[in-house]
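forwarding from the other thread:

> can someone predict this with PRP?

sure thing
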Amino acid sequence: MGEVHVIDHPLIQHKITLIRDKETGPKDFRDLVSEVAMLMAYEVTRDMPVESIEVETPITRTSGKQLAGKKVAVVAILRAGLGMVDGVLKLIPAAKVGHIGLYRDPDTLRPVEYYCKLPSDVSERELIMLDPMLATGGSACAAIQFAKERGATNIKLVNLIAAPEGIRLVQKVHPDAEIYVAAVDERLDSHGYIVPGLGDAGDRLFGTK
Ligand code: PRP
Ligand code: URA
C-alpha cells in the first residue's frame, strides 16, 4: 500500500493555517500555496539518488554529489494544481511540466476529464503530481490512471490538505503511488468539501467566486 507522508514542518503548519483563513485573499493565497509547495518539494525529493563527482573549488579538487536518478516531470491537476507548480519548479527547475484537466461534477462528485498533455518521455521520469485538495480521491485516481496509461510508473501525489476518504481511495486504487500531504483533515461534508479544509481551492486561487 502506498505510504502516506505527512509533512508537518512548523513553517508548513503556520502557512496552512493562513491558507485556511477565509480572510486570506487570492494574492496571499497564491503566494502561500506556492511557498508550501516549495517546502513540501524539499521532503518529496528527499529519497532522490545522488552520485559522486569531482569538483574544482577555487582552493582544491574535491568530490561532491549530484542528482543521479530519473529526471522529474511535475504534473498539475487543473485548475488548482497550477498554484503549486512554480513552488516546486523553484527547487527542480529542470523538470518538465504536464497538465491534466479534470473538474468534479458538483452533483455526482465524479471527475470529468477535459485535457491531458504530458511530456512524451513520461515513462522515463519520476512524476510529481500536484493538487492542493484530495477530497473523495476521484480526481487524483483519474489523474494517476491517465499518467499510467501514458507509461508513468513512478508517481508521487502531493496535496496540501487531504480527507481520510481520499487517502483511502488512492491507496486502494493505486497502491503503488506515494502520497505526500501537509495536513489530514477530519472528513468530507455532504457536498464533498473537506472539513475544516480551505473551501474551493481553484476559486480561492483565481478569485472566481
Ligand atoms: C478540486 C481539487 C481537486 C478536486 C478534489 O478541483 O483541486 O482536483 O476538487 O476533489 P476529489 O478528491 O473529490 O476529486 P475542482 O474539481 O473543484 O476543479 P478546479 O480545480 O478546476 O476548480
Ligand atoms: N475541492 C476543493 O477545492 N475543496 C474541497 O474541500 C474539496 C474539493
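Residues 133, 135, 192-194, 197, 200-202 surround uracil (ligand 2) (CB under 6 Å). thats all i got for now
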